[in-house]
Amino acid sequence: MYILPVPQQWEEKEGVFLLDYHSRISVAAAVTEHSHYYAKLLQEDLQKQLGYVPAITRGEREAGDILLGLDSSLPEEAYHLDIRSDGIQLAAGSERGLLYGIQTLRQMVSQAGALLPCCEIKDYPEIANRGYYFDVTRGRIPTMESLKALADKLSYYKMNQLQLYIEHSYLFRNQSEVWRDDTPLTAQDILELDAYCRRLNIELVPSVSTFGHLYKVLSTKTYGNYCEAPEQAKEEFSFHDRMHHHTLDVSNEGSIAFAKKQIEEFLPLFTSGQFNICADETFDLGKGKSRELAEKKGIQRLYLDFVKELCEFVIEKGKRPMFWGDIIAGFPEAVRELPEEVICLNWGYSPEQKENETKALHDAGAVQYVCPGVGGWNQFINLIDSSYQNISKMCSYAHKYQALGVLNTDWGDFGHINHPEFSTTGLIYGAAFSWNREQLEFSEINRQVSCIEYGDSSGKFVDRAAAVSRKSIFDWWHVVMYKEFGNTEFTEKETLEKIPAANEELTKLKQEFYEGLIFIKPEKRSLIKAYLVAVDGMILFNNIGAAIACGKYKAAGEAKKGLARELEYWFYDYKEVWRTVSRESELYRLQEIIIWYADLLRCLD
Question: Which of 336, 357, 420, 456 could make an S-S bridge to 461, C-beta 3.0–4.6 Å?
Fold first, then answer.
């Protein structure tokens, strides 16, 4: 029996409780507001898992019932689950704790069915804010159905915050130039998602880029005059350029007014008490139109003054500001100049991430969230080993330096090639290690994730996905960089040595995915196609990398054409998988890359 996050206290006892079709879910009279919704959530899951529906009632528990109630002696998010042979009693410090207890019970039923082992669980989170940050700008804009499914998953693993990264993917007023070639989220979408999250005890925190990373905005005729380096807007689109330029010109008074207008329009859609202004990676600051001002004041002062004014504006609007801490980590003592309410989002994604920034910000008095990452950007399948190392380290720093929260990030650099499903394992790592400071070993938590999330009785699913992710030689970063800059970082010897063995292993692992289907619950098997398509893409691009770097197909024209055809057929399947969870958004940009490579293959000598 596995539970994730692992409970703080878990005592197994003799005996079992039979949850039969006569059992009832009894809601104590004192429980109000969302209690019926949570009881319904449990009821619907029992119907799915057991095939019958315990009735919901209110009042005292009788033998064989599940009693849901509150206990004022418990901390607000704590719960106490007592499973005895004559019934189940779940008490919590608040309805939030009640939901967490129900999620634990759901996980137990998914593994044990109607015969639940007697036990007593006393549980609570060690870090108050446990969030997930999902990029819905750099390639993928999810469907509403998939966003709600993400909220369901976060709730299942007891997370309580969600942020969606917005640059241009929201339908801002008077910005049709920005979203005219996209499929943006609308105000109605946000309002609907906010209400859906709120019922699941998830705070949907608004997050809008208001300083750097404004490629589409600052490339328009209407707003291009606010760009620090306007010559960049004249360049042809490139994924690399979008990541490294397009910062607001702080010497232009219209820039701060524009940023405030973005905040003012977006903020009312959310019930959250917080607002993330982002303000990260302002690479061009002081190097273009604000150079003269930077020579007088210094780039650090330009950055701090702009961020401070935006934070004060957010506070005036009754919200608590957040911002990314990568810039201020270089001069952490400056956080003392910001309003005391400000939250610094301290990110770092290396598997060998040190605690230096976390400690420095803590010592400077910053209120901070520690922000690891799920390792999916620029990969066909997330780097699971790397994400485990990064997330476990960053969560340990969060506990050590009393961080206010953990915000686990899922970025979409270079078009968000990886399917969002592939981030699930990293999502669960973050949920588990922020809730409970005692961390499971890599192989053990992978076994538990395989069982709980995928219903995999063999316990091998996540380890298999981790093994696959290591075998991408010509990965998506190389794919994009070669197209945009002719850069492969390959030598003939390295390519010839690595690719055949990598592809042989990928072919073997693909076969194991097929063989492992029988061990996965039927309702989860639809996820497997995304993995299979990704593996095929990795094999294909490994071969394409070999063709480019080594001239492997130099004397085999038909082989080149065959590889081009294979790539085009592969992308047909890829698009089908994409559309199961995402709007069209920037799928066309990925298609341009695929066509470019197919044409290149047909032209190689």
Answer: 456
